[in-house]
Amino acid sequence: MKTLICWTALVSLHSLDALEIVIDRGNDNPTPIAIVPFASSNSNGAVSGVISFDLVRSGQFSPLEEENMLSYPSQPGDVYFRDWRVLGMEYVLIGRHLDRLDGRVTVTYHLFDVSAEREVKSGEITAGRERIRDIAHRIADEVYEEITGIRGAFSTRILYVLVENIGTSYARYKLEMADSDGERPRTLFETSEPLLSPSWSPDGQRIAYVSFETGRPAIVIQELESNVRERLPPYPGLNGAPAFSPDGRELAMVLSRDGNPEIYTMEIAAPARRPRRVTRHVSAIDTEPGWTPDGKSLIFTSDRGGRPQIYRIDLRTSLTERLTYQGDYNARARLLPDGRHLVYVHRREGVYHIAWQDLETDEGPRVLTETSLDESPSLAPNGTMLIYATQDQGRGILAVVSIDGQVKYKLPSSAGDVREPSWSPYLDTLSATRGL
Amino acid sequence: MRQFRRCNVASLILGVLVLVGCASQQESEPAAQPEAPVEVAPVQTQPVQAEPEATDFDNRSRPLMPSGRILATKFYFELDQARLSARDLRLLEMHANILTRNRDRRLVIEGHCDERGTREYNLALGERRANAVSSFLTSAGVRRSQIDTVSYGEERPDDPGHDESAWSKNRRAVVIYR
């Protein structure tokens, strides 16, 4: 709970239409770290502020407030470990950022372990000036990985649907993409009809989603670089829940062209693009497919047992196994990158939460969220956190919770109701940094 | 109910005109025939059409019960369910009668859900609700080609609220004549 710091100073850095972040709860034992404001000819604190906020959001770090620092080193030779030990710091991050004559910026950083009194990580990143936030997220990733041993996921993006003027006849549905901290949102597509189920291709270059732009549902594949949209010719009935396979070659989806909702897979690059039917259950709803990390099976929601529950089907043998037994509503499951842990929407006493389950020990469902009407869980690529949609005082907001349930924060938007979040895979938005 | 069809067509139309002013989509019980006002001239100047079309729809193309009242076009469901009530089946039978008498008329059936649960599952559940209406109508003689279904899941609530009263209005199938 130590991370309940007032981040109002940082919030003022946020643009108006971005998602804000309200931290509810952090880890019980966050690592104390001093992130010294990076020396700079201008934009003081921009880089270190973003890094600080990334680490705070992870719930695993408790950055020292700037006014409590005894010194502000920006060169390795100026770091006096005794000063930081006195303040109880375990790590110190320093850096500087230089404006180059070619219009780009170079940011250099050094991370020190205070008790070992040595530098443990350093790097230098050069990029266009407009990419300063990308640089900061990248440094946060490297610091996070160095200290926790887990790859950082700050240099990622989220997709979500923003609905303006909800409940009126002039509602606007906007498919938005923002940084993982909700900053720099941009609209990828906009329509007056519902949009839902956005999902990423594994290389992060394409997305798929469901659009009602013609009045009927259709699956759209959109290239992010060019913004070229391709609407898959819709079949009668449902066309929904698109999910790219781990190798990016296939799309799993739901079609009800044969009379009721069934799961299909389709090769995206094939000239004829014929959907291959995976489930065969005439009276049941089969929907919300998600791939296992090896790409050999799908998990999905089905009410073939009378109530929605999660199942797994082997794509080669069609052997199907029920995965959830507790509760009368379990839906929209996603597997962690380890393929062993499942998160899904779980109804308990009429309240919809996000729950976690270990498929090997059958531990769970463990409810992770304290909000209600929770849906659409989407995992960060490192599997440490998930983003989901919920409601706060009647408004649709996004929220994030760590897989251990300890860290929680909300991302409301002042622009309208937000929903249907989808966390990107790892994105290589900057060329590799050079260690110093 | 059938005996109402033998009523004087002109008085039926008058009744409809009176009803339109306070029309409710939720009328389900046959009410007493309203008294025909004596001095309503404009209707009598129109030649009365004797063909069925004239009594099946009002002048705004809304479907009518044999009594001349507007026929309900929204049908409500329990949570997680797609079962139609006995009352709804009686009302849908009247829709089926209208559609079998008017083979040129087409219908879009929309399926909707409340906001609880997941969006894709709700799209499927909304489709199941629309299909429940559609199969009843086809079993009652309506041609498959007259019917189109679409599910909006939880995307288009009738009531934007977040309580049981709103949710019960949002779990619905809606029939729309084209």
**Helix amount of chain B, in percent?**
25-40%
Largest interface: A-B, 35 and 23 residues
Q: Supply the number of structural domains of chain B.
A: 2
The best one-word shape of chain A is: globular
Look at the structure and give the mean pLDDT of chain B: 79
The CATH class designation of the largest domain in chain B is Alpha Beta
Explain briefly what this protein structure is.
The complex is a heterodimer of chains A (436) and B (178). In chain A, 9% of the residues lie in helices and 42% in strands. Chain A is mainly β.
Protein described:
The complex is a heterodimer of chains A (436) and B (178). Chain A has helices at residues 8-11, 46-57, 81-86, 132-148; strands at residues 22-25, 31-35, 39-40, 61-63, 91-99, 104-113, 118-128, 157-164, 172-179, 186-191, 195-200, 206-211, 218-223, 229-231, 239-244, 250-255, 262-267, 276-277, 286-291, 297-302, 309-314, 320-322, 330-335, 341-348, 351-358, 366-367, 375-379, 385-392, 395-402, 408-411, 417-423. Chain A has 436 residues and is mainly beta. Chain A has 2 domains: 8-148, Rossmann fold, CATH 3.40.50; 157-423, Neuraminidase (6 Propeller), CATH 2.120.10. In chain A, the strands form 7 sheets. In chain A, strands 2, 3, 4, 5, 6 and 7 form a 6-stranded mixed beta sheet that branches. In chain A, a hairpin with a 5-residue loop joins β23 (330-335) and β24. In chain A, α2 (46-57) crosses α4. Chain A is globular and about 70 Å long. Chain A starts with 7 loop residues before the first helix and ends in a 13-residue tail after the last strand. In chain A, 47% of the residues are buried. Mean pLDDT of chain A is 92; it is low at 1-13. By secondary structure, chain B is an alpha+beta fold. Chain B has 2 domains: 2-56, no CATH class; 74-177, OmpA-like domain (60s Ribosomal Protein L30, Chain: A, 2-Layer Sandwich), CATH 3.30.1330. Chain B has helices at 9-21, 41-45, 53-56, 86-101, 119-139, 164-170; strands at 74-76, 107-112, 147-153, 172-177. In chain B, strands 1-4-2-3 form a 4-stranded mixed beta sheet. In chain B, α4 (86-101) packs across α5. Chain B is globular, with a radius of gyration of 18 Å. The A-B interface holds A 166-167, 194, 196-197, 212, 215-217, 237-238, 240-241, 254, 256, 260-261, 285, 287-288, 301, 307-308, 329, 331-332, 345, 347, 352, 373, 375-376, 391, 394, 420 and B 80, 115-121, 123-125, 127-128, 149-152, 155-157, 160-162.
